[in-house]
């Protein structure tokens, strides 16, 4: 699938993997890249705008833990401004098993709410045009890091939710797939807490394994979007892309 003149909404498009993926997307001559993120970063937005002046980059503040009604209100504003959205990327995530409720809220509930809200505009049963959802999971979604069962469980939920969305595509007209990064050098994995302190040095031990850079991950991330395979569970690990 060509991404030329597509409108893409990217939740957490300024994060570690998110920012490098946004940069890769801009090389594809989108029409609009709409970034939703919790923290405004004018320097990052300016950097993105400079990459490809042909693409309009727009920022909206958004916390994925907001209630569904607030998310729906924001999406109504976005659809009013841009008329159409072709792809939604759900990329928000945290890794801290001390924050149980927030981990589930950010990694799973927020993703479900954003998806639910956009279905109101896309669902073909409501005469919508359909759309494409790309959810960022993790290899922990099917190969848990047992020291962080809350995080791993939230990512397993993302994988299963997305697989269900893909099977519902004949009903809704909305296709879906997950991209699941392996260990990537981000601030997320520099230091994090294990569940009930079962492993005090889990971050250090995790980084003893081979890793990939955010740039490597981003390149394969965009390749997965271009392949646009409904129901796919892509693994993005060590600079490779594979089912």
TrEMBL record:
Assembly mode: Homodimer.
Name by which UniProt lists this protein: Alcohol dehydrogenase
Example GO molecular function: alcohol dehydrogenase (NAD+) activity
E.C. no: 1.1.1.1
Keywords annotated in UniProt: NAD, Oxidoreductase
Reaction(s) catalysed by this chain's protein: a primary alcohol + NAD(+) = an aldehyde + NADH + H(+); a secondary alcohol + NAD(+) = a ketone + NADH + H(+)
GO biological process: alcohol metabolic process
Entry's Gene Ontology cellular component terms: cytoplasm
Family listed: Belongs to the short-chain dehydrogenases/reductases (SDR) family.
Keyword presence, Oxidoreductase: yes
Gene3D superfamilies cross-referenced by the UniProt entry: NAD(P)-binding Rossmann-like Domain
Record carries keyword NAD: yes
Pfam families xref list: adh_short (PF00106)
Domain of life of the source: Eukaryota
Enzyme type, top EC level: oxidoreductase
